[in-house]
Amino acid sequence: MSHSAVIARSRPLYERVRSVIPPMEWGGFAEDVERILELKEERNAVILAHNYQTPEIFHCVADITGDSLALARRAMEAEAEAIVLAGVQFMAETAKLMNPEKTVLIPDLGAGCSLAASITARDVRLMRERYPGLPVVAYVNTSAEVKAEADICCTSGNAKKIVESLGAGRVIMLPDEFLARNVAVETKVEIIAWAGHCEVHERFSAAEVRELRAAHPGVTVLAHPECPPEVVAEADYAGSTAGMAEYVEKNRPARVLLLTECSMSDNVAAQYPELHFVRPCNLCPHMKRITLKKIRRSLETMTHEVTIDPAIAARARRAVERMLAVK
Ligand code: 13P
Ligand code: SF4
Question: In total, how many domains does the chain have?
Answer without folding.
Answer: 3
